[in-house]
Structure formats: structure tokens, C-alpha cells
Design brief:
This protein is of the alpha+beta class and 456 residues long. The chain has helices at residues 52-61, 110-119, 163-176, 180-187, 215-224, 233-237, 267-276, 302-316, 328-337, 381-392, 396-413, and strands spanning 15-21, 25-30, 43-47, 66-67, 83-86, 96-99, 193-194, 212-213, 259-260, 288-293, 319-324, 345-347, 416-421, 425-428, 433-436, 452-454. It folds into two domains: 4-83 and 425-454, 3-Layer(aba) Sandwich (D-Maltodextrin-Binding Protein, domain 2); 96-421, Roll (Dipeptide-binding Protein, domain 3). The chain contains eleven helices and 16 strands. The strands form six sheets. It has a four-stranded antiparallel beta sheet with strand order 7-13-6-12. A three-stranded antiparallel beta sheet has the order 1-2-3, with no helix packed on it. α8 links the parallel β10 (288-293) and β11 (319-324). The longest helix has 18 residues, at 396-413. The chain is globular, with a radius of gyration of 24 Å. The two termini are 46 Å apart.
Length: 456
């Protein structure tokens, strides 16, 4: 049986723990003259107040100085004499996307295969993605490249169009229907910025709003990565011209089409692409049905409304959307881990800030290197190659070239439909608090209270 003496935190930071009442409040006290990060005040108390309206009322009366706030309340702050304090820089704020799990295009666990090569082991590195439940039925947004191994009979592809190309066009069409600026203006009180991939947007290093991608460009990168590599990537993964999606570029429905980095909200183009993909509106006005998982994600409670805004855009196209509010940790996470999640999910996957350097590899979560743990639940040898080669290349210019090819690949295949990059911060009483420069973190709100500057 636990006792109060079980909780005895020990650290070298600028605070010591005082009174701590779970589910009620916690108190910390400043370490005077701390050697590296001295606080600007003596005591910091965190009080549990679940309701935003109550927090705002308590800030008005002076009972509290700072509080988390829902985006929907932003426009009320000024009238109540309160302000929004951004605790993280614009570049450090969390990204949000519609992730497209279930696009499983490799039959090799590169993590195991790499280990085998290094250690001379022989652990089985084969995986069988065609056996995943994501391929039990023909989902419009998931491409099955496994031909005779695909468990369903594909009957809705336009003549000459592969399942991979059809699904890619669908993902692009749905991406064009996302009103990113509308989400910023309406749900985020005009704060934040649109993004177009989880790891690319206006605040990211290397952002090129005029850049476009063609099938020939991405095909050429496969050829580029078919020779020797600086790491074991080529030996583990084989030549890029042998990766399963390589044959798709010559069969592109519009081989000369320039796919933009800056994806405009364009319902006309979205409808055109869904028509081209072989999903015209039926007599009931419906093209196809889709489910989408939403939950109180990294952006907070507003994530539910952000997901609804995406769904509203898709509904305008004649796509019937069912929103799933399954418990994320208990239900969705195991499906993402096991690569059995067939529906898009609105959340942040792994790229948490726009400070993501332009010479970095993809997150391991976007590759088989995250197995057997949680991943974004799409996999291919291209991103496995990038994970290995960028991590192992010493020359920064070469890493940047690899990264650019990687971003082009993400765009062409639309593995993420980027949405927005909302601000992170708290509401405050300006009579008592001047600023709070926190840190880059997924939590984002309450890091490093020693950086709070009180009114003197």
C-alpha cells in the first residue's frame, strides 16, 4: 500500500516540490540563486480546473494568473481583460495532419534486415502486408500493389489505371478539399498557419511554395537510389528501380501533371481528381464512404472540431464521412502499432515542430524501423532508404538533397494531408504576467515555469 513518503522527487532543477494533492493542486518552490535557470518568483501553484469558462473567471478575479484555454474562447479574451501568451515560438508549435495509414508497400522489415547484415544473423525479416486487415476490402484511399496477393477483387478502377494510382488520386482530391486557412481563421482565431505535409509548410526550413512534383521527377529519384549507397541501405533494400511503387510512375493518369507543394483549397480540382479516379457521384450524390478517427489530440480539444472541418470539406465532394471517436490509446494505437488501421486519423504523427532540419531523415515512425512499436502505419522501401541513408551520410549538402527527394515523395504519394500548425500557449491576466517563453514539447503549455516573467 502506497504512502505519502513514496513520492520523494530528487533533481537538480530550479524548483523543489511542496504540497502535492493529486487531482487537486501541486505546489513548487523556487531554488534561490539557482546556478543555471533561476526563477523570477518564489512559488508556482498548479490548480486543477477542468472547465475553460471557470478558468477565465478565476483569471479575471485574480484567483489564478494563467490557464489553459480552448481555441473557441480566444476571441473572448480581450473583452474579459485577458490575453493569450504564446509559450512556444511559431516554429516550435505542433503540426496537425490527416494521416493515411494502411498504405503498406514493402515486404521487408528493414530494421531486422539491417541488423542481420551488421551482426551476421539470420532472423526472418520478411513481412506480409497483404495479410493485414487493411486489405480485406477495397478502400478508395488505400492502394494495394500486391497484385494477385491482394485479397479483394478490384472492380472499380478506370481502364488502365492501377489500384495504387487510383488511391493516390483520391488522397490528392481529398487533400484539395481541406480548408486549411478556414481552420486557422475560424477555429484558431486567426492564429497559426496552414501546412501541406506533416514535415513541410511555410515555417519549415527548405519551404518552396512554388515547387511542384511530377511522376518523372519521383521516378528519377528511384533511379538515383539504385546504385551504391554510403550506408548499408542499398544492400539491405535493393535498387530503387526494384521497389514496388516504381512501376507506377509510367502508368500515372496524368504523367505531366505538376503536383504542388502549396496545396490550395480547390473543390473544383478535388472533384475533377475523384472523377478521374473512377468515383463519380451516384444518383444519391455519394461517391464513396470513408471513416475517420478523431480524438482530443495534440492540439487539444479543438482537434475534434479540426477533424470535423476536414470531414465537412470531404462531404462537399460527395464523400460520406463517418467520424469515429474510439478511445485513441486503447483502440487506435494498437491498430497503428500492428499496421491494421485502415482509416485516416487526424493528429500529429512524429514531426512535432517546424524546426525540423532540412537535412534530417524521416521519423522512424514513417518506416519499418519503428516495428514492432507504434508507427504512422504506412511503410515503403523509399522511406526506409531515406531513414538509413540520411542518418549515415556525413555531408550536409548530400543530406539536404536526400531530404528534398524525400519531401517530393511524400507529396507525390500524399501519405499525409497536412492541415495546420496552431499556436501553443496559455491565457493570462496581463496585470500579473508579462510573458512565458517555454520550450518545444508535445505538451507545450506548462514547460519551464521559471521562464514566466511576472509584472513587477
Amino acid at each position: 500500500k502506497g504512502t505519502e513518503t513514496d513520492f520523494v522527487p530528487v533533481g537538480s532543477g530550479p524548483w523543489t516540490v511542496g504540497e502535492w494533492k493529486p487531482e487537486d493542486r501541486g505546489t513548487i518552490h523556487a531554488v534561490p540563486d539557482h546556478w543555471v535557470d533561476p526563477p523570477h518568483f518564489g512559488t508556482f501553484i498548479v490548480v486543477q480546473v477542468p472547465d475553460t469558462t471557470s478558468r477565465m473567471a478565476m483569471m479575471q478575479t485574480g484567483e489564478i494568473d494563467l490557464g489553459n484555454i480552448d481555441f473557441g474562447k480566444f476571441r473572448e479574451l480581450e473583452s474579459k481583460g485577458l490575453v493569450f501568451l504564446q509559450t512556444m515560438s511559431d516554429k516550435d508549435t505542433m503540426t496537425l495532419s490527416a494521416i493515411w495509414p494502411g498504405n503498406l508497400w514493402t515486404d521487408l522489415n528493414a530494421k531486422i534486415a539491417s541488423k542481420n547484415l551488421k551482426a551476421g544473423e539470420s532472423e526472418d525479416a520478411a513481412i506480409t502486408p497483404w495479410l493485414s486487415p487493411v486489405y480485406e476490402v477495397d478502400h478508395a484511399w488505400i492502394g494495394c500493389p500486391w497484385e494477385s496477393k491482394c485479397p479483394y477483387t478490384d472492380t472499380d478502377n478506370p481502364a488502365g489505371m492501377s489500384d495504387m494510382e487510383q488511391a493516390r488520386l483520391v488522397r490528392w482530391g481529398l487533400s484539395h478539399a481541406i480548408d486549411r486557412q478556414g481552420i486557422v481563421d475560424v477555429l484558431q482565431a486567426g492564429l497559426g498557419t496552414p501546412i501541406y505535409q506533416e514535415l513541410m509548410g511555410p515555417l519549415f526550413p527548405g519551404w518552396r511554395p512554388e515547387r511542384t512534383v511530377t511522376a518523372a521527377m519521383v521516378k528519377a529519384t528511384h533511379g538515383k537510389y539504385s546504385g551504391k549507397s554510403e550506408t548499408q541501405a542499398a544492400e539491405v533494400l535493393g535498387p530503387g528501380t526494384g521497389w514496388i511503387e516504381y512501376k507506377e510512375y509510367d502508368n500515372a493518369a496524368e504523367p505531366n501533371h505538376e503536383w504542388p507543394w502549396l496545396i490550395e483549397t480547390d473543390l473544383g480540382e478535388a472533384n475533377r481528381l475523384l472523377d478521374l479516379a473512377g468515383y463519380p457521384k451516384g444518383s444519391d450524390g455519394v461517391r464513396f464512404e470513408i471513416k475517420m478517427n478523431k480524438y482530443n489530440c495534440e492540439t487539444g480539444a479543438v482537434c475534434l472540431e479540426q477533424a470535423d472541418a476536414v470531414a465537412a470539406g470531404w462531404e462537399e465532394l460527395g464523400v460520406k464521412v463517418t467520424m469515429l471517436t474510439e478511445e485513441y490509446g486503447a483502440v487506435v494505437v494498437p491498430r497503428m502499432r500492428d499496421r491494421t488501421q485502415p482509416w485516416p486519423v487526424v493528429k500529429n504523427c512524429s514531426v512535432e515542430t517546424a524546426n525540423y532540419p532540412f537535412d534530417w531523415p524521416p521519423p522512424s515512425a514513417d518506416s519499418t524501423f519503428s516495428r514492432p512499436a507504434w508507427g504512422c502505419s504506412f511503410e515503403n522501401r523509399f522511406l526506409d532508404y531515406m531513414y538509413m541513408e540520411i542518418n549515415g551520410t556525413r555531408d550536409k549538402a548530400k543530406r539536404e538533397d536526400l531530404h528534398l527527394d524525400m519531401v517530393d515523395y511524400y507529396y507525390y504519394w500524399q501519405l499525409y494531408s497536412g492541415m495546420v500548425q496552431p499556436p501553443r500557449g496559455v491565457a493570462a491576466n496581463p496585470k500579473t504576467v508579462v510573458s512565458w517563453n517555454s520550450r518545444s514539447t508535445a505538451a507545450g503549455f506548462w514547460g519551464r515555469p521559471q521562464h514566466i516573467i511576472p509584472v513587477q
